C-alpha cells in the first residue's frame, strides 16, 4: 500500500441560479454579533452589492475554512476587497449556533439562519446529506449580487468537499 | 434597514413570558414592530445595554415618540397610555 486513498464525492452539476438572472429574494433571521432580526436580501441589495455565501452547517470544517479565508482576506471590510459590499453567510444552523460561530471565528459578517433549507432550494443548491436522514443543507456556493438583485458571479460546489476560488470571486467583486 | 422599517423595535428573548406580554399588547394595538432576539446570557446583551442602559429584556425603542424603555409592566402601561383608548391624540396621530 502506498499513498492515501480517499474519495472526493462528485455532486454533479447543480441547476442553480445563473449569472445574469435575478437572485431570488428571501427573508430570514439575520444573525449578528449581538442579536438577530428578520432581514430580506432586497433590504441588503438596496444598500449595495451583496456577496451571499452558502455554507455547510456551522461546525463542519468546510464552513470553518471558508469563513477563516473570507475573514483573513477582509472581504467587505474597510480597505479590503469589495469594501462597499455586504458579505453575508447562510446555513441551516440556528441563530444560537451562528452566534457561537461568529464569536469563535471572530468575524464581522452576519449570517442568515435557514433550518428549512428553502433558500438553498430557491437558488438550486440543495444538498441532501448522506447518513443524516431528513437533513438537507446548501451546497457550498457564492453568489455576487448587484443592487438590481442580478447575479453577477456564481460559484457552486460540484464536489464534496470543494471550496470557492477566492481570487476569482475577488476579481468579480472588482468588476462590480 | 428597509424604507418600510417599523417604528417600534422590541428587544426580546425567545420564550420569555415578559416579552410575550409586550408582544400581546403590541398586537392588540396593531402596532408594527421589529423583533430583535438576544441570547439568554446577560453578558451577551451589549446591544440592549447600549440602547436602554440595562441588560434586561423586554426593551422597546419607539421612534414615534423617542421613547426607550425596559420592564414589561412599564412598557405595557406606556403602550396603553400612548396607543390605547383614551391615549393622547397627538401620539396616536404620530403613530399612524
Please tell me about this protein's structure:
The complex is a heterodimer of chains A (176) and B (96). Chain A is an alpha+beta fold. Chain A has one domain: Glutaredoxin (3-Layer(aba) Sandwich). Chain A contains five helices and eleven strands, in the order βββαβαβαβαβββββα. The longest helix of chain A is centred in the middle third of the chain and has 13 residues, at 61-73. The radius of gyration of chain A is 16 Å and the shape is globular. Chain A starts with 8 loop residues before the first strand and ends with a helix. The relative contact order of chain A is 0.24. The model of chain A has no long low-confidence stretch (mean pLDDT 94). The model of chain B has no long low-confidence stretch (mean pLDDT 89). Chain B is globular, with a radius of gyration of 13 Å. A four-stranded mixed sheet of chain B has the order 2-1-3-4, sandwiched between helices. Chain B has four helices and four strands, in the order βαβαββαα. Chains A and B meet through strand 3, helix 1 and helix 3 of A and strand 2 and helix 2 of B.
CATH architecture grouping of chain A: 3-Layer(aba) Sandwich
- Judging from the principal axes of the Cα atoms, what is the shape of chain B? globular
Main pleated-sheet profile of chain B = 4 strands, mixed
Structural class of the helix and strand makeup of chain B? alpha+beta
Helix coverage percent of residues of chain A?
25-40%
Shape of chain A: globular
| Total count of helical runs of at least 4 residues of chain A | 5
Overall radius of gyration of chain B: 13 Å
First-to-last CA distance of chain B:
20 Å
Q: Uncertain spans of chain B, ≥5 residues at pLDDT below 50? A: none
Strand order of the largest sheet of chain B: 2-1-3-4
Number of strands of chain B: 4
Order of helices and strands of chain A: EEEHEHEHEHEEEEEH
Strand percent estimate of chain A? 25-35%
Q: How many strands of chain A?
A: 11
The succession of helices and strands of chain B, N to C, reads EHEHEEHH
Structure annotation, total helices of chain B: 4
Which strands sit side by side, in order, in the main sheet of chain A?
3-2-6-5-4-9-10
Amino acid at each position: 500500500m502506498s499513498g492515501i486513498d480517499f474519495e472526493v464525492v462528485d455532486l454533479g452539476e447543480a441547476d442553480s441560479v445563473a449569472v445574469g438572472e435575478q437572485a431570488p429574494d428571501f427573508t430570514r433571521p439575520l444573525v449578528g454579533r449581538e442579536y438577530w432580526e428578520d432581514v430580506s436580501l432586497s433590504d441588503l441589495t438596496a444598500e449595495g452589492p451583496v456577496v451571499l455565501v452558502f455554507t455547510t452547517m456551522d461546525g463542519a470544517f468546510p464552513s470553518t475554512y471558508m469563513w477563516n479565508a473570507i475573514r483573513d482576506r477582509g472581504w467587505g471590510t474597510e480597505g479590503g476587497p469589495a469594501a462597499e459590499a455586504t458579505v453575508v453567510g447562510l446555513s441551516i444552523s440556528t441563530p444560537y449556533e451562528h452566534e457561537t460561530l461568529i464569536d469563535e471565528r471572530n468575524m464581522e459578517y452576519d449570517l442568515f439562519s435557514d433550518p428549512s433549507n428553502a433558500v438553498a432550494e430557491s437558488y438550486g443548491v440543495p444538498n441532501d446529506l448522506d447518513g443524516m436522514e431528513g437533513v438537507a443543507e446548501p451546497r457550498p456556493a457564492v453568489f455576487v449580487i448587484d443592487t438590481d438583485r442580478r447575479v453577477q458571479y456564481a460559484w457552486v460546489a460540484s464536489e464534496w468537499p470543494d471550496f470557492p476560488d477566492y481570487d476569482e470571486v475577488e476579481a468579480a467583486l472588482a468588476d462590480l | 434597514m428597509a424604507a418600510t422599517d417599523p417604528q417600534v423595535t422590541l428587544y426580546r428573548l425567545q420564550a420569555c413570558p415578559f416579552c410575550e406580554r409586550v408582544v400581546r399588547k403590541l398586537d392588540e394595538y396593531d402596532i408594527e414592530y421589529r423583533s430583535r432576539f438576544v441570547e439568554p446570557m446577560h453578558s451577551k446583551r451589549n446591544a440592549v445595554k447600549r440602547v436602554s442602559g440595562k441588560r434586561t429584556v423586554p426593551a422597546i425603542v419607539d421612534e414615534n415618540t423617542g421613547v426607550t424603555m425596559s420592564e414589561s409592566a412599564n412598557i405595557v402601561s406606556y403602550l396603553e397610555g400612548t396607543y390605547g383608548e383614551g391615549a393622547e391624540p397627538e401620539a396616536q396621530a404620530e403613530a399612524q
